[in-house]
Amino acid sequence: MRKGVRKLRALAPTLTLPRWAGEGMMLAVLVAYALLYASPYGLRVLTVAGVYALAAIGFQIVFGLGGALSLAHGAFFGIGAYATGILGSQWGLGFAATFPVSLLVPLLLALLVGLPVLRLESHYFALATLGIAQVVHLLAVNSPGLTGGANGLPGVPGIVLFGWAVPRGLPLAAVVWSFVALGGLLAWRLAHGRWGRALTLVRDDPLAAGTLGLDVGGLRLAAFALSAVYAGAAGALAVHTQRVVSPEVLEFPVMVSVLTIAVVGGRGRVAGAILGAVLLLHLPEWFRFLERSYLIVYGVALLTTIVLAPHGLTGLLDRLFPARPVPLPKPEAPPEMAIPGGPLLRVEGLTKGFGGVRAVDGVSLTLEAGTITGLIGPNGSGKTTLVNLISGLETPDGGRVLMGGTDLAGKRPDRIARAGIARTFQAVSLPEGASVLAAVAAARLERDGSIAQAEAHALWALERLGAADLAAKPCAGLPAALRRRVELARALARQPAVLLLDEPAAGLTDGEKAELASHLHAIAATGTALLVVEHDMGFLLPLAGHVLCLDQGRPLYAGPPEGVRSDPAVVAAYLGEGA
Amino acid sequence: MITLQLLVNGLALGAAYALVALGFVLVLNATAAVNFAQGDLVMAGGLLGVALAPHLPGYLPLPGLLLLPVVLVLMAGLGLLLAAAAYLPLRRRPPVAVFISTIAAGIILQNGASVLFGPEPRAAPPLLSGGTLDLGGLVVAEQSLAIIAVAALLIAGQQWLFGRTQLGRRLRATAQDPEMARACGVPVTAMILITFALGTAFAGAAGLLLANRYFVTPTAGGDLILKAYIAVTIGGWGSVPGAVAGALLIALFEVGVSSVLSYPVALGLLYATLLVILVARPQGLFGEAARRRA
């Protein structure tokens, strides 16, 4: 297959297209098909494909961009369908009233269940959302007074738009696909804007996203709720197409179809949702001999895609027609953040226990503007825990983290990041799918108005560390030393008042360490206070103006770096008693 | 008396659930993969019993029990197939890939079954002759006792295999740390294949046991995977005895609430309980800490 792709590429070596070209071509083909070739039955299939495309676009937001495998998407679809079905057939309400309700009810449910459930990790989340779907299905089947029970409700009225009763056939297909176009455009803009970038960072690395000032929980909840609105709209349109609502809309096959469409089409891509929906809704027509077991085709398509083409059909298209490389922006210094002089951060009596172990036990320290403080201690002495406590990744049991008079202890990582604290991680984590520039620009998403601006500022940060030539490279496959450099640029792009570095010199050569030290001096010279966790004394002691040594969570030594080597307590902690 | 009767019924159901949950947890421990097809594999085991039943010689008094070894072997084979198609090609990819591939495998199983057998509920033959026993006023179905006995034997066999044999040590080493196990010369891929075969055989056995008393339909898997999951969540993610205990608890709850109210209410309450446990105590009732999103 790879060979075939290369051959095809060789045929069209100069063919590069703007990002929306694929989407535009697909839309044109669809319109042509609907106008020229579709029979009444063909139009019906196309209409249903539109319904699923809309549901799948919503699913791309929560699953593709947000990375949360929500198995409640089918339930939101069904709830939208029932809202329209009940209000339309029982209460005689028209489209203008039922459609908004079909968006609102799934939205409210998503907000209600989303708060607790979204905190769960991958498969916990998936199965919890499946549980929600099963509960909704049970309720629909077992409340015949409201839902018509297992038989459902017939006689749902058609769509009436501004007094025009939309007839079946081409007009209905056109109306449904207008909603798809509208929803697709909105989702595409969101996905390619700041919000979409932030959401993908939350998907790829939620820890880093929080420390870059992004409200992880809020982003997830918004994605989940928005996807529910899409599903509700699709459900409403489905019922108008069928004129009946029955528990089938809440059964697992709906969810399976949406998931398959998204994965086969290409995760996170609006074009993937449309391509997948049109293809998979037409597949059973081509495999008509399978009759009601068309879902076998879905299963096989899903399994084959996930094994052979993990990026789906749009991924294959991307390899055939690689997008035109986007020119790099001009580097631009972000607006200066005023860093006051004097003590920037005061930590007082910080404590944290895990089980019976006191990992951090009453640590106090002060970080002055423009200084570099070294944090040392044997393995397990609580250095990383202290950094995690200050940056909000762990909640302290006691003590205060004061910055400009505000106690940040126990606050969310994004709140702390926005107060002016940035950090790097001991194990560098960068979003593997992103370019270096995009990875660094993630640090500015919360502050800058547009992606272009964020990238200009990101390039400035890379330039300051002499790494501007990396900007267009993918993060995946970067050597360790450069990964550390990129991560430092990302922290720097936030223009932090306080910068926490967790073993920045690990794995670097002597030359690279010297270079890093000069960069760190330059950062401190702008007024930023640095706290550097490090094992390499040859690197740290000349760098730091002040050193704090921890042992078993307690401060053992605090003072000038010259005194460290001669301090008997420090020597004992490192070399053991009696050394 | 009625309470005792319910208790026996609940224990029988719980014993079968325990096999489902056990298979689920074994695969989870060995591969860190959530096998979403586990419920559909239970269904497949039940339908296998339905399909094989007409070929049983009529004069033998132990219909279902004779099928058990056949179902175990065939299902183990299916487990190998599942691992080869849905796990091994994806082992270096994020866990969600395996999760989706097992969803796909479940869809194929479910709809394959619905093509072959139709949507109607069917019953597999009873393990024994299908009568009842009068234990001093307490009338119990032979099937219930047989389910409890067979499940107990299989679980004990699993404990023996993992606890007392060389193969078991290798399986446990693989579950604990595949990299380390490989470094120590354990053929990790083979161990994973064996785990999938075992887990699937347990699901199949559960299917055969359940499909006599509760019938089996091609779509029965959805509820079963959730129950296995709830059992594992109650028992502590990754704990084998926890999974068995969780399964018994669920079954007793289900039988109890169904007898007083109704089955849908019992099911709804179970799912609601799942949500509450997940939110309030995701590490399970006696388990180690589960990983949460930050």
Please give the number of β-strands of chain B: 2
Structural class of chain A: alpha/beta
Number of helices of chain B: 11
Structural class of chain B: mainly alpha
Major sheet attributes of chain B: 2 strands, antiparallel
Strand order of the largest sheet of chain B: 1-2
Strand content of chain B: under 5%
Distance between the termini of chain A: 64 Å
Strands of chain A, count: 14
Sheet with most strands of chain A: 6 strands, mixed
The dominant shape of chain A is: elongated
Question: Could you estimate the helical fraction of the residues of chain B in percent?
Answer: over 70%
Residue windows where pLDDT falls under 50 for at least 5 positions of chain A: none
Oligomer: heterodimer
Key features of this structure:
heterodimer, A: 579 residues, alpha/beta, six-stranded mixed beta sheet, four-stranded antiparallel beta sheet, 55% helix, 12% strand, B: 294 residues, mainly alpha, two-stranded antiparallel sheet, 72% helix, ABC transporter, permease component (chain B), transmembrane transporter activity (chain B)
Write the layout of secondary structure elements.
The complex is a heterodimer of chains A (579) and B (294).
Chain A: H1 2-11, H2 21-37, H3 40-65, H4 73-89, H5 95-117, H6 122-142, H7 144-147, E1 153-154, E2 160-161, E3 164-165, H8 170-192, H9 194-204, H10 206-211, H11 216-242, E4 244-245, H12 252-265, H13 270-286, H14 294-308, H15 312-320, E5 343-354, E6 357-368, E7 372-376, H16 383-391, E8 398-403, E9 406-407, H17 413-418, E10 421-423, H18 436-441, H19 451-464, H20 480-492, E11 498-502, H21 510-525, E12 529-533, H22 537-543, E13 546-551, E14 554-559, H23 568-575
Parallel strand pairs in A: 7-12, 7-13, 10-11, 11-12
Antiparallel strand pairs in A: 1-4, 2-3, 5-6, 5-8, 8-9, 13-14
Chain B: H1 2-31, H2 38-52, H3 63-87, H4 95-117, E1 132-135, E2 138-141, H5 142-164, H6 166-176, H7 178-183, H8 188-213, H9 221-235, H10 240-260, H11 263-280
Antiparallel strand pairs in B: 1-2
